[in-house]
Amino acid sequence: MFVAGRRKSIAFFIALGAGLILVTLLLYIGWVLLNWHTGILVFLSVLLLAIIVSGVVLNTTFLVREIRRNAQHDAFINAVTHELKTPVASIRLYLQTLLTREVDEAKRAEFYHIMLEDSDRLLSTIEQVLRTGRVGPSNRKLNVAPIDLADVVEECLARARMLHHVPVESLNYAAGPAVKIMGDMDEVRAAVSNLIDNAVKYSGPEVNVTVETANLDGKYISLRVKDHGPGIPKTELKQIFKRFYRVSGPLATRVKGTGLGLYIVRSVAKRHGGRAWAESEGPGHGSTFVLQLPIAK
Amino acid sequence: MSRILVVEDEKHLAEGLRFNLEAEGYQVQIVETGEAALEVLNQQPAAFDLVVLDVMLPGKDGFTVMSEMRQAGQYTPTLMLTARGHPEDVLKGFEAGADDYLTKPFELSILIARLRGLQRRGDWLRASLKSSGNREGSSSGEHAASAEPVEAVTAPQTDRFSFGDKAVEFDLLELRVGDQIFPLTLMEANVLRYLIQHEGKPVSRRKMLEEVWGLHEDTDTRAIDNFIVRLRRYIEEDPTRPRHLRTVRGVGYRFVASPVEKN
């Protein structure tokens, strides 16, 4: 309902902009035809026309962008509401159950585990939201030190296996040469962890993820996270790194998320003087996410 | 034993609900998607006494599932459960045909109380269906109103209102117009009941939202109009020129039981 409304208003503003430019051009051509002999006036009018046309184009562009951003923001609020309220609802449900009912010892232990997992989920959503604020432009200084990327990857893999209940063999790690990178431990860990989490989340029931590190020409080390999930359409490969952006369609509703994970990955890469991008042969062919970070000197 | 279908993709919540509902004596089946829910309900339409339906589901969302259920003629009492608590969302749920709506996080005791309430209504419905079965056997072909005594014996709390050739059976959630029977959702019945209680007087949209839905926040009160449009389709001979459910411009609506003809 809202989406259709937004699309309509975007189309309206584009049409309005194009219409205004057309009217201006027509008036202008008419005027030039009538006054072709006064040279300076014609020159001035060309200048004025250029200013008017570019003004209209800029105005339309910004309006359309603002409308799009608004739509994404709404979607983000919805997603965060869900991601925050669902674990709280679950924890409350189990606490109320434990308070009001007779629960045997085994069930009781199971309930505690479930509540712990829910509070972990809650915590990771909160951290994700807070981190988005920190990694934004012109924020917090990096706390740089030499880091062994292999250690970070092992740590994140162990965490992901526990969190998503995945067996060891579905999350593989092919370590390259041991080199240290210069980076902020906290941020690099968050970026690596986001990539691995995404790969697991989008894999569906059959998780088969490979993480590789490779030394590129002595300057950069690249971390590749390869999954056999649904893949990404070519047009979305860049978009997905934008803040709040989520691929539309059935996939996004199947996998829940806030649209912050990849934004954090890209921001961390930029802050470290590295890069992050996605590769995919298209839907159905899985995807590979690459994080490139500079090697410590 | 009452059977309850829980449509919820969050495993923790679903299992927590199962534990509690089973402790309350319900038999619980859990499905994770709207598609699965529709399939289960299609295969065994009468198998469940209650449905608990989440909104943010993978694939078809809860609102879609709800309206498809009702369109397919499934009137199992349904409680929608969701993290989205904006008044617009609540109204959207009711419009889709939900009987009740609860936002996450919820109080366990309130959830159970509401489910009991819905189930009670379902049981009354079944009891009066049985009695209406008897009635048809004993006085087939007669006008429904003439069978009053039989029903009075079997279902003492009969709650009905007749006007013209129409009768609203609140317990049955039915609207009878001549020989036709239209099933009503609980909310449609509640809106109608509220209007009938204030027969002849104009009722504002805001008042209806407060009294029928229990919503107090600022809301698009036009959402009610959809209910009125649906009710008019049942009641009015010409829904574009309503005689019973009249619009009071700038205020809301007015119910008139026996309109004076002016032709």
* Shape label of chain B: globular
The number of helical segments of chain A is 7
Please provide the ordered H/E string of secondary-structure elements of chain A: HHHEHEEHEEHHEE
The neighbouring-strand order within the major sheet of chain B is 2-1-3-4-5
Major sheet characteristics of chain B? 5 strands, parallel
Radius of gyration of chain A: 26 Å
- Tell me about the largest β-sheet of chain A: 5 strands, mixed
Structural class of chain A: alpha+beta
Strand percentage of chain A lies at: 5-15%
Pick out the low-confidence regions of chain A.
none
Strand fraction of chain B equals 15-25%
Structure in words:
Chain A has helices at 2-34, 39-100, 105-135, 149-164, 185-203, 250-254, 261-271, and strands at residues 144-148, 171-174, 180-184, 209-216, 220-227, 275-280, 287-294. Chain A is extended and about 95 Å long. Chain A is built from seven helices and seven strands. Chain A starts with a helix and ends with a strand. In chain A, strands 2-4-5-7-6 form a five-stranded mixed β-sheet. Chain A has a two-stranded antiparallel sheet with strand order 1-3. Chain A is α+β, with helices and mostly antiparallel strands. Helices cover 60% and strands 15% of the residues of chain A. In chain B, helix 1 links the parallel strand 1 (3-7) and strand 2 (27-31). Chain B is α/β, with parallel strands linked by helices. The longest helix of chain B has 31 residues, at 108-138. Chain B has helices at 11-23, 34-43, 62-71, 87-96, 108-138, 148-154, 186-197, 205-213, 223-235; strands at residues 3-7, 27-31, 50-54, 78-82, 100-103, 160-163, 166-169, 174-177, 180-183, 202-204, 245-248, 252-255. In chain B, helix 2 (34-43) packs parallel to helix 3 (62-71) and helix 3 packs parallel to helix 4 (87-96). In chain B, strands 2-1-3-4-5 form a five-stranded parallel β-sheet, with helices on both faces. Helix content of chain B is 44%, strand content 19%. Chain B starts with a strand and ends in an 8-residue tail after the last strand. Chain B is built from nine helices and twelve strands. The interface between A and B is medium-sized, with 24 and 22 residues.
